[in-house]
Write a structure and sequence with these properties.
Blueprint lengths: L13 H7 L1 H13 L11 E6 L7 H16 L3 H8 L11 H16 L3 E5 L9 H20 L6 E5 L8 H19 L6 E5 L5 H18 L7 E6 L14 H7 L4 E6 L1 H7 L12 H14 L5 E3 L18 H27 L5 E3 L5 H13 L2 H16 L11 H17 L4 H5 L5 H4 L4 H10 L12
Parallel strand pairs: 1-2, 1-8, 2-3, 3-4, 4-5, 5-6, 6-7
Amino acid sequence: MAARTDRSSSSLSPAEMKSLLAGVKKAGAAFACTYPGDSVARQPVHTVYGGAQLFRFDSTVRLGALAEKALDEYAPTGAELARAVDLPVPEGASADFVPIVYDRVRAKLRREAVEDFRIDFEDGYGNRPDDEEDGHARSAAEELARAMREGLTPPFVGIRIKTFSPELAPRSLRTLDLFVTTLARTAGKLPSGFVVTLPKVTMPEQVAACVKALAALETRLRLGKGALKMEIMIEQPQALFDARGRVALPGLIAAAAGRCVGAHFGTYDYTASCNITAAHQTMTHPSCLYAKQVMQITLAGTGVFMSDGSTNVMPVAPHRGAGLSAEQLAENRKAVHRAWRRHFADVRASLRDGFYQGWDLHPAQIPTRYAAVYSFFLESLDAASARLRNFIEKAAQATLVGDIFDDAATGQGLLNYFLRAVSSGAITAEEGEATGLSLAEIRTRSFLAILKGRRLNAGAPPRLPATP
């Protein structure tokens, strides 16, 4: 009689399975290292640039005061701001929508007008004699140390050095050394969220050289390994594609050896390098949209934050001084509103395209930055809250297969929406928790972590204080 075959048994032994999957396991570990997922750290909504020669310990406080002054003068009410920027009011929104946006913008200007400030030794500074730049590197560091002592630093701050081109690298490296050394010796530590911005990157060797310099400074100044972080600026086509047509950005990130926390797009240098004339150098030019899509594809899942560029149409009144005529005042208002409308539209376009940070170059751009960010998040609040509650309810009703349920990617996007909205101040902690999730759960960015946490806590969402 023939031996009976047990059809329920596996044909492959555990040892064979392990051998067959060894390559997958090894590749998976390497993949997870390269693509660790989105960072759970707070990302600023903007970076404000200012020349190093002008930086003082209270610069960001003064910028906030100037931003609020511009709002007082050119949009003293929510209705006037809405008209000035063509603020879209979502269908079915309550009559409070515009006042809520306006009140939160004004409160933000008083509480924390500048989220990220970059002390600039590049375009905003220019080329100066070595002795002069040496002096500014030391004095700016001393001013930053004073800001730290007096509690006046923004959540994020740093310096932009010159490019590491063969001609400018020695000057750039000296400025980096003088600034960081003076800061560390004066303050005894680095400020929270400190970063070094390296512009006009075209080669991995430039990034690697900067990394070596940062590591050497950490050792000499006893700052701790990895204390000095960096950002790279994407301002040349060669930062996206190398001479052989390969995507270059992964090589730049790899050369940073884990120090790169951001990649900033430089609209005007990039368009100029593509031979686009000045009249058409805008953030929404097709060449810029393509470049930023390449950045998105390349950096997805790496944990590196992306930042869009700036609007170079400044909200500046053409007429100055006392005793202006009614006609001159009207022209001032018209000019500022025209610039505001352009800036507001640019920020909204960036947000729509998945770029949640950008540059601001003038204090009067700060109100429209927050108006764009806050209206963008608030107009979706009710729908996003309902959708996220629905996801959680389905999970609670055991509509899971294991720990995976349908459309999890959409749910992940909703978590990201609420995390950014709360962090920026667009929505309150209470509005975030109306989803049925605590802020602690939202900040995990992971439904799997939320479900596991609720099992451990018998379904009770943990509480966490709101961020600014």
